[in-house]
Amino acid sequence: MALPKLNSLPSYKVTIPSSGQETTYRPFLVKEQKALMIAMETQDRNDLLRGITRTIMACVEEDIKSPLTTFDVDYLFTMIRSKSVGETVDLHIPCTECETKNPCTVELDKVKVSNMDVNTEIQLNDDIVLKMKFPTYEEFFKSKILDQGISQSEMIFELILICMDSVLTDEECISIKDESREDIIKFIESMTTGQYEKLAEFVSDVPFLYQDITFDCSNCGTSNKHVLKGMDDFF
Fold it and tell me: Fewer Cβ atoms within 10 Å of its own Cβ: the N or the C terminal residue of the chain?
């Protein structure tokens, strides 16, 4: 005799930030939570991010039309987690004045995604435009970004490589994915400092999950304004 079905899961609507696609999702189940806990126990960031991505794909109930960017994954997982474990999370945030850690309750359904109006086309000179795209965690796995000990300048360079989409001229559109890493690096190294700074500015402005937190310190009374940035700050 077959065991009975335990639960009829509710569905919730959500809009994917990067594409504007509306979809629905369900809370995650014990099997997905177990997989996440195993990934967390390995203390390997790659394993955890892969586990989070797999959880999203299991819980989203419709086909996702575009690749999920890093901030899509952060946002969708936060929404799914809020309906699965709890809609709030308790954090302890240090005071900017005395560094006393203050308890703060964060409402996960109020998180936002920043900078959605970032211009993805960078004018390098009168004849050449570099079209950029937002990164995905799948691209992170294939790069050096998640390597331990990577410097800030190396991380920015790797992000630029990931975010380059195509080179536009009056005559043609050259897809970066069709070029070798060596040729792409040579192209970047041929830029002026000003041109490179435009690329670095783009990757520093990639949208991210955030929420503003305000509190008065329980120890010294100082008014604090703190910004939670990215999934790591929330969990």
Answer: N
